[in-house]
Each structure stands twice: as structure tokens, then as C-alpha cells.
Design brief:
Spore Coat Polysaccharide Biosynthesis Protein SpsA, Chain A; 10 helices; alpha/beta; 17% strand; 2 domains
Length: 284
Amino acid sequence: MGNDRPSASILVRARNDEKLVARTLEAIFAQETQLGYEVVVCDDGSGDRTREIAAGFPVRFVERPEGPYKPGRTLNRLVREAKGDIVVFNNSDAVPLDAHWLDELTKPLLEDRRVFSFANQLPRADAKALVRKDSLRAFGDGKVQATWRFFFSLASSATWRKNLLDVPFDERIQYSEDVEWAWRNSRPGRDPVKIAYCPAARVEHSHNYTLRELAKRFCGEGAADRAIFGDRPSLVRELAGAARETLRDWAYLAARPRDWPEMPSAPVRRLVQRVSHWAGTRRK
């Protein structure tokens, strides 16, 4: 790798995050690292003060492409505009929790150029109990996610810029564009990319989605799962999955009396998720 330290471009996608963007940028600029870096912000037409707040920091703005929003198009433009050897993606609502986040996230890259790393996402203080449970199950020490078919999140992640210039994001897909890229490029082949989970690279990132928002998200992810993996599960299989997850929810809540009010909503939440996912896999 040589003795020269690489540089990094931290790419921050933002939309209507006026309550969090200042905390995120403050944490990014407070990193204790030998890695030189720039911060690039892409504001996706925020209707609040997000852009104004971000402009108070020494950031460079890059505008997203004109026309209907496609995440791959925006990501590819940001990668092309980046000046660093390493590209770090960090959403404006993903707040680094200490001054070593950047070093922890990029550590695997300094050992191997064919790596795409992603951070540990911890729930916010206001996260609902089941949101906390899902977040800790998906991230945490990584033991649960290691048993899943595939898991990756771009919200706070890093790779060498060349990897993304050589193979850009798919600009047609509307959801799970990060998973699609990681899956496509980590399969056995000529030179696959290694996916590395970095539990010590910690950011605060979670959402208390409404049922309507859950339905939209899981329907979109279902459509993406069909496009990426060829998934087309039966409704019975999805309902069985909802039942299993509800039992885990109840076990989690039972040990936390203050969270018992969420007991009745658990099966509704899981039904919405699974039925919406099933509908997404049927969408043409």
C-alpha cells in the first residue's frame, strides 16, 4: 500500500434533516484522524433549513441530477465529484458517536483495496422499543446478521473510490441500491469485493416509521429483493415470518415492563411489513 496516507471524501446526502444535520457535521469535523478528508453535501431539495445549516460548515455542495430521483444516479454523481481516494457515505441523519468513527470505518480498507465496510447503527434515544430491538438485532455485535443470507447498509459506509468508478451503482433501482451493488460485486468471481462490518464505527441512526411509512418501505424493498435475489415468497411464508418475529417482539417487550404498551402493536407492525414485502415482490 505504500507509506502515503490516502485521502477521503465524506459524502453526506441530506433531505429535511434540520434537527440532525448540525450534530452530524459537528461530529464529522471533530474526528481525530491522520486521514485527510473533505466533506461533500448533496441536499435533495429540502424544504426546511437543512441546506442553510450545512452551509455554516466548511463543506462543498454537489447538486443531485435533474429529473425524478433515482438513488443510484445521485450516488454515482457524488462519487464522480469526490476528490478523495476513499469514498465515505454518511447520511445527514447518521450521527457519528465518537471521534474515532472514521478511523474505525476505514481501517479494513487500509488492509485491502477490495473492501466495502459499513458501520454499527445504534438507535436514537427517542426510538420506540421495537425499533431499538430491530436495530440491535441487525447491527450490535454482528452475530445475528452473520446468520442472514446477506446484509449491508450504505447509511454509514466506506470503500475505495476506484471500486465505484469501475462498477457504478445501478441507476434503475429505486430501493436497496446499496444491497444490489454489494451483492453483485461480492459474489465469487474474478475479484470480488469483501463486505466488512465495523461494530466499533458507531453512528446514531434509526426511524420511528408510521404504519404507512413501513408499508411503503417494505413494498419497495420487496420489489428490490425480487430484482436482486429473484425472491418471490408465498404469502403463507411471509405470514409465518410475521408470526415468528412477533413472538420475538413479545419476548423482548416482556422483559421490559415500561415498554409493555407496545405489545398490541407488535403483530400489526409485523403484518404490515411482511404483507407489504410480499406485495412488492409481485409488483411489475
